[in-house]
Automatic annotation (TrEMBL), chains A, B:
Origin species: Novosphingobium organovorum
Protein name: LacI family DNA-binding transcriptional regulator
All residue ranges annotated as the HTH lacI-type domain in the record: 7-61
Cited CDD domains: HTH_LacI, PBP1_SalR
One Pfam family matching this protein: Peripla_BP_3
Biased composition (Polar residues): 359-368
GO molecular function, one term: DNA binding
Region listing for Disordered, in residue ranges: 338-368
SMART domains tied to this protein: HTH_LACI (SM00354)
Keywords: DNA-binding, Transcription, Transcription regulation
DNA sequence: TTGTACGCGTTATCAC
DNA sequence: GTGATAACGCGTACAA
């Protein structure tokens, strides 16, 4: 176990015949420095493989370089996408990403997070939905002296501290697209109450229906929990309605999958008899049968922007804070059979894994 | 932005009328301490909300409290499960978890990771498959002076530095179970060459077939990439074989899903005409139609054990290092139609989301 | 049982 | 431009 101590700034100073401070200036790229001495010092640094000790830096600067990712998110892909996005931004900086999965139902939630931030002396934290919707939490983090950036489905905060998707518009556009496909009876599966994302998607559904001149019928609307089973329950209700809906918008993919199970179990053909659209573009969406048309957040881009806002607050306001989602069109949604349109329904044998599937199609959403 | 400086050990010492060192003893739970002074100091600590600065501690102790999770893993759920497991173990310690997704195909992989470890002065790292199979990488980490624990599908390392599932046995048992269901023609989809997990699962398949007295037929075996599309390709090959296999073991769920698409596309009924078993128990497995019988790693337990080995090397050898997987039985595998068994195939309308599904059944694997 | 002096690796101050 | 010297917050010798 090679345990030879790592070279310090003193070693570099001694070997290059300058003072510690000069080495420090080289490291921090001070502008007022003789080019010759800089070169000399840099040579010694390279030779020794010297790397500044971040703990000592943090101590002297009274400032840390850890950013925390706090989440309680059921969507593993999203969390991982965020981690990758953040990493891309901080890759060549001295920042590191420390993660903290939490349980939003724990009564000790706030205390846990407070302890986490205080103990690690975090520079900043990034909050993922749904806990990003918790204003009390965000305030507490700020009171602890760390910058906060929240990721969400709507304008939860000032733009310097926010990165959000416009779920409302994305859903409205998707629903309107269904109407363009000839669907007139469009059902809806809402997410759980208390989730901002669920509420935005509901509003978007109403917007889209209104734009299409279609009425909202409570008989073909249900509230779920974002879980698979609740999608099945919604299937029990909505598929029994008369007349049956010809299309369904589900507030997430998991419920859409549950709903689809029920539909297939009743011998309903998708998309010939019924179109389904989900939300999230989870791995499941691409792998179920038929492949699910769904709305996708530009997660990595959002995470990159969020990380920028975190590590460079001065630049935060200039970074975009609202992102538009793409509709990933797969086989689960097609022209309404009863409509007068000329498009044939997507063939049931289409796997939806051609080139049109692996790269998102033209977004339904538009800049405004 | 409340920016009042946090209380330091000096503040505590002053207010409680003792020296720094005494406070330090309280923090570190030194046994030789007057109970009265301890109580007094603890009161002041609580009152001030004092939290020791980990950076200063790290500096003084010449030892850090960051553990790194390095991974390049396509299975988001597994990565997140590991993160949660690690967190459960380090929750009440001063350790923090810093994550580093990497690209195993990058030529700079080793340099990237070296830089990461040196820059953050990591205490230890945890390697996830498939990069945990890279001996050169593990050696480099150790040369950098940080302890390494690897997670994998087989005995990659000494037990102090390893947490592994016994994929070979799990697959063998699952395949043997298929034979007990009456299947005699069992196909196999292998994972990509160069993956240790893929190799172990292949060996397990061969073991299981041998135990069942069944021959290996290359006509119903295919090699995939662990990706969905390769499962479809395997479907094209294996479903064209004569006679057609009555059961398939796929080395992961994603390929199983691709295979299933092809089977359903050809009008083959699952499980009546064909049984399918996957590996990983991803979210997809539970959500596709029919729900997929699959092998599941006890990921959280493994991650907890791995974290223990990391932060307490003295205790490492006593922790278990080989974990047994569970077979999650769902609707996709059933009695072979042509067999003489009395069990009826699972009804096609079963959603597989009853109680028997949400909690794993009795494991097929046994302690040895 | 408790306190003093010093070191850990770095940056900031303020001379030169 | 560059270099002594003092922080930063905490732990360890060693003395009391």
């Amino acid at each position: 176990m090679p345990k030879e101590p790592k070279p310090t700034i003193n070693d570099v100073a001694r070997l290059s015949g300058v003072s510690k401070k000069t080495v420090s200036r080289v490291i921090n790229k001070s502008p007022l420095l003789n080019e010759a001495t800089r070169k000399k010092v840099e040579a010694v640094i390279a030779e020794l493989g010297y790397v500044p000790n971040p703990q000592a830096r943090a101590l002297a600067l009274r400032r840390n370089f850890l950013i925390g990712l706090i989440h309680d998110n059921p969507n593993a892909q999203m969390v991982l996408g965020v981690q990758e996005g953040i990493l891309e931004t901080i890759r060549d900086t001295e920042f590191a990403l420390v993660v903290r999965p939490v349980d939003r139902h724990s009564p000790a939630l706030l205390d846990d997070i407070r302890h986490f931030i205080e103990q690690q002396r975090l520079f900043g934290v990034m909050l993922l939905p749904p806990i990003s919707e918790n204003d009390e939490l965000a305030d507490m983090c700020r009171a602890l002296g760390c910058t906060v950036v929240r990721m969400g489905s709507a304008a939860l905060d000032k733009s310097e501290h926010l990165v959000a998707s416009n779920d409302r518009q994305a859903v409205a556009d998707a629903v309107y697209w269904l109407s363009e496909l000839g669907h007139k009876r469009i059902g809806f599966i809402a997410g759980p109450e208390g989730f901002r994302s669920a509420r935005e998607r509901e509003l978007g559904f109403a917007d889209g229906m209104a734009r299409a001149g279609l009425p909202l019928d409570p008989a073909i609307m249900a509230r779920g929990t974002y879980r698979f089973e609740s999608g099945q329950a919604a299937g029990d209700k909505l598929l029994a309605a008369t007349p049956r809906p010809t299309a369904i918008f589900s507030s997430n993919d998991e419920m859409a999958a549950g709903f689809l199970h029920r539909a297939l179990g009743q011998g309903i053909r998708v998309p010939q008899d019924l179109s389904i659209i989900g939300f999230d573009n989870t791995a499941t969406a691409a792998h179920i049968w038929p492949p699910l048309t769904t709305v996708q957040w530009p997660i990595k881009a959002m995470a990159r922007a969020a990380a920028s806002k975190l590590i460079d607050p001065a630049d935060a306001a200039s970074q975009p804070s609202i992102f538009l989602s793409d509709l990933i069109r797969r086989a689960s949604a097609a022209t309404c059979a009863g409509a007068h349109g000329t498009d044939a329904p997507a063939p049931a044998t289409q796997d939806g894994h051609g080139p049109a599937e692996t790269q998102p199609l033209t977004p339904v959403t538009k800049s405004r």
